[in-house]
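Take one protein record:
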Amino acid sequence: MLVKYCNAACQRNHWATHKRDCKLRAAKLRAAKLRNEALFKDPPAKEDCPICFLPIPVALLSCASLPFATISAVPIYNLAIANQELATDAMETYYPCCGKSICGGCVHSFRKSGNDGKCPFCNSNRGGKTDKENVEEIMKRVAANDAVAMGMLAAHYNQGLGGVQQDHIKAIELFTKSAELGCSKAHGSLSDIYRKGGYLKKAKFHFEAAAMAGNEEARCNLALLDANSGNMEQAIKHWTIAASAGSYNAMDNLIALFEDNVVSRESINTTLTAYNNSCAEMRSEARDACINEKLLDQGYDTL
C-alpha cells in the first residue's frame, strides 16, 4: 500500500520487482502475529514437587503464609522488599543424583527428620562431596540430555564455579541447548547475558520464550520493557498474567496502576482473586518452616 498505480496493468507489471520483498514482509508479519498470540496465552501450570505434590514457585517468598493481598497492600511484596537477600532465592533444589527438583519445604522436613546430607527423593548421600565430584555428577546428567543439569553446568562455566574454568562461550552453548530442551530458567539466564552485553533484541527473544514457558520473572521484565517504551496496554497484559500465576511483584505494579486509575476495579478484583488463589495453592507448613529458618539465619523476624 506504499505505491499508487495508474491502472491494473501497470500494477501487474510492477509486481515482479517487489514480489519477493512483499512476500517476505507478509511472512514476517504473520510470524510476529502468531508469536504475539502465543505470548499472551495462559502459561503452562507450574511443576509440582514430586514429594508434596504442591506447585513449586519461582521465588522462595512467593509461597509465604501471609494475609492475602488486597487493593491497598500486597504483604508478600512488602516482605520481599524488607528481606531483599531472600527475594530472589529459589524454592527448589535440584539433585543430580536422581535428576529431580524438590521444593525447599520437603528438603527442610527431610533434614529435620534426621536425614541431613541425603537426597529427599532417592535417599542417596550428598554430604561431603567435593566440588569436582559434584561437577562430575552434573556432567553425567548432561550426558543424559538433562536440561536442568545443562543449565547448572552452564552457570558453572559462566561464573567459574566449582573448580570449572570460566568460559562464557561454553556457558552460552550449554544455556542454549538447555533452553532448546525446554528449561525456562536457561532462557532467563540467556536473557541476562544478552542484556548485559547490549544485545537487547536477543534478550527480549529469550525473555519471551521464558515467559511463554511460565516464568513470571521473565514476564515481569517484559512488562517493564513495554512500559518503558510506552506500550502500557501490553505491559498490563504481562503483569496480569504474571500476577495470576502468583507474582507478588506483578500484583504490586497492578495495584499501583489501579491507584492511578489506569486499571479498572473489575480488572484488579479479578486479578487479585487469581493471585490469592495461586498463592494459596503453593503454601504449606513445611515451606513456611523453610522460609522462617532462612529469615532467622539473616537476622530477620519470622513470618
